[in-house]
Amino acid sequence: MSGPGYPSPNQTPYPMPQPGGYSMPPYPMPHGGYGDPNQAPPPVGFHMGYQPSPDQPVMYQPGPVSPVPQQAPMHEYGAGNVGAPAAISPAPPVSVPVGVPPGLEYLTQIDQILIHQKVELLEAFIGFETNNQYEIKNSLGQKIYKAKEKNDCCTRNCCGSLRSFDMKIKDNMDREVIRLVRPFRCATCWCPCCLQEMEVQAPPGTTVGYVVQDWHPCLPKFSIKGASRETLMKLEGPCFACNCCGDVHFELKGKDGGKSIGRISKQWSGLLKEVFTDTDNFGIQFPLDLDVKMKAVLMGACFLIDFMFFEKVGEANQRNTVFS
Which of 270, 62, 264 is nearest to 146 (CA)? Predict the structure, then answer.
């Protein structure tokens, strides 16, 4: 039992009077939340004390971290203007690997990408072809890029899946980091001069590679080329590139063939989506240490495969639905 004049153990301590009219707690209080004034603050968006769950690591989105502005100097209560404390230094600049195009830094940390095409209601109901839009995510489902096709209405609805386009890929800060350029080419496996091709630029205006269709009477084959059109890798798909209740895999191999080192997979989206829309889902797997420019070229290869083999299937299903 507490003596008279003293607080109960469960009672909040009261301020103790001090000479000069000030008061203070009966014990020293910890200085929480400020830390060492000479220590750099955490990056923008990172909250002190945040503990991620064990099964979900913190995944930083692409783009450099902007410096933290200096905070106004703070004085201890009652100390007066006895001198300004040491200024808080800004966050150190983020080190960017040499040769990585701006905006692609995040690709150096991952070995797989998920690409989801957005459902276009206008296409689903009346069959009117609109610009394709995609979300590009990491393996945890976090959006890291977005892509949108750019061309005119006549080209989309007259040329169908063979149409030419520019596709802009932007990061989460709405910066265009990759541009895909596809020229118009007639589709036939018997004429080598009409083979499909896509140019990949990162950043826009700087060519980093090409995706070129290889001639073959039965199999869909592609060459992944560098900026000087030198062949670096090969892509090979199945004889019938259509997914009937299952995934379709395009195997990524070295320039001389051999063992698979990755793949581009068209994922089965379900019967309703496959029949009534041309909305597709893809997964890309590649070596973690692959040149980041070639990872961007593989993204371009995925979009080219979508237009060549799966866009026209969706268009045919939509026409049959509208006119039936």
Answer: 62
Q: Is the dihedral of CA 296, 302, 303, 304 positive or negative?
A: positive
Give the pairing of strands 281-285 and 112-117: antiparallel
Question: Is pLDDT of 158 > 90?
Answer: no
Alpha helices in the chain (DSSP H): 121-126, 153-159, 271-276, 292-305, 312-323
pTM of the predicted structure, to 2 decimals: 0.66
Q: SS3 for 86?
A: coil
Per-residue model confidence (pLDDT) at position 246:
75
- The 8-class DSSP code of residue 31 comes to -
Backbone phi and psi for residue 147, each to the nearest 5 degrees, phi listed first: -130, 145
**Predicted local distance difference test score (pLDDT) of residue 163:** 86
Dist CA 138 CA 122 (whole Å): 28
The tokens describing 284, both together, are 């890309």
DSSP β-ladder status, 221-226 and 176-182: unpaired
Tokens 């001389």 locate to: 256
Handedness of CA 55, 57, 61, 66 (dihedral sign): positive
Q: How far apart are CA 231 and CA 250, in angstroms?
A: 17
pLDDT band at 316 (very low <50, low <70, confident <90, very high): very low
Number of H helices, E strands in the chain: 5, 14
Tell which wins on pLDDT, 24 or 34: 24
- Residue 286 is predicted with a pLDDT of 97
Q: Check: CB of residue 181 under 8 Å from CB of residue 151.
A: no
Each residue of 57-115: pLDDT tens digit? Answer: 444 554 444 444 445 455 444 555 555 544 444 444 445 677 899 999 999 999 999 99
The HSE-up count of residue 231 (CA atoms within 13 Å, CB side) is 15
**How many Cα atoms are found within 13 Å in the side-chain-facing hemisphere of 10?**
1
Kindly give the pairing relationship between strand 23-24 and strand 207-214.
unpaired
